[in-house]
Amino acid sequence: MAQAVIDHRRATAERNLEAILDATERLLAKHAPVSISAVASAAGLSRPTVYAHFPTLEALLEAVVERAVERASAALAAAEPNAGRPLEALDRVIDVSWRELERHKSTSRAAAEQLSPEAMRRSHSAARRPIRELIDRGRRAGDFRTGVSADWLATSAIALMHAAVEEVRAGRMTGNAAGKALRASIRDLWVGRHDAG
User: Fold this and answer.
1) Number of domain units in the chain
2) What CA–CA distance (Å, rounded) separates 33 from 72?
3) Phi/psi at 45 (nearest 5 deg)?
4) Same domain for 48 and 62?
5) 64 and 12, same structural domain?
6) What is the pLDDT of residues 88-102, one digit of tens each?
7) Do residue 139 and residue 48 come from a single domain?
8) Residue 77 CB neighbours (<10 A)
9) Which domain holds residue 14?
């Protein structure tokens, strides 16, 4: 009996968590103001319930970004970054990452505006792993530069992707043009032959 109660509470908590994250994503997609009150209302829950899961708005936004990154990581895995030549894998990773970022551009914009650099780094840790593995594999194959740190290459690629989202959002580039620019820019960054000392 006690286990059934615990299971019911756990299931309720999981449903509430998903409802909170979904409501936050909907508000971001509509460019509506996001607050704990607004999220509670959109999720059909009380403010104390939202606060029980997320003590601050930053914690909530970080969780929304983490979920988007987890979904992007699954898409990255499906792109098989460990298969084929590293340069070909890099192109697949960029294409998949760009599609995922475009799909979650409202979340990306809110994260860039409201999360600290450390929170952004934490929330992107799942996506950094396959990128770092690809960098290491490409270095072993002699395809990727070695004169700068692998962390710098990964961080720069992620930053370029977010910059491309902003260019599209501001109307300065189309999504297609931004995707092509990303591929060229990240390739140049990762493959550059004139490494800094």
Assistant:
1) 2
2) 25
3) -125, 170
4) no
5) no
6) 999 999 988 888 887
7) no
8) 12
9) 1-55
Question: Do 162 and 70 share a domain, yes or no?
Answer: yes
- What is the three-class DSSP state of 196? coil
* CATH number for the domain harbouring residue 131: 1.10.357.10
* Distance from C-alpha of 95 to C-alpha of 194, rounded to nearest angstrom: 26
- CATH for 6: 1.10.10
Full-model pTM: 0.72
pLDDT digits over 2-15, tens only? 666 567 688 888 99
How confident is the prediction for the chain on average, in pLDDT?
A: 86
**Residue 124, number of CB atoms within 10 A of its CB:** 21
Note the residue count of the chain: 197
Confidence of residue 1 (pLDDT cuts 50, 70, 90): low
Residue 130: both structure tokens together: 């396959």
* Distance in angstroms between the alpha carbons of the first and the last residue of the chain: 67
Taking alpha carbons only, the member of 88, 162, 168, 85 closest to residue 127 is 162
CA distance linking residue 158 with residue 135, whole number of Å = 13
> 72-81 contacts: CB < 8 A, separation 24 or more?
72/96, 72/97, 72/100, 72/101, 72/104, 72/127, 73/126, 73/127, 73/129, 73/130, 75/99, 75/100, 76/100, 76/127, 76/130, 76/131, 77/130, 81/130, 81/131, 81/133, 81/134
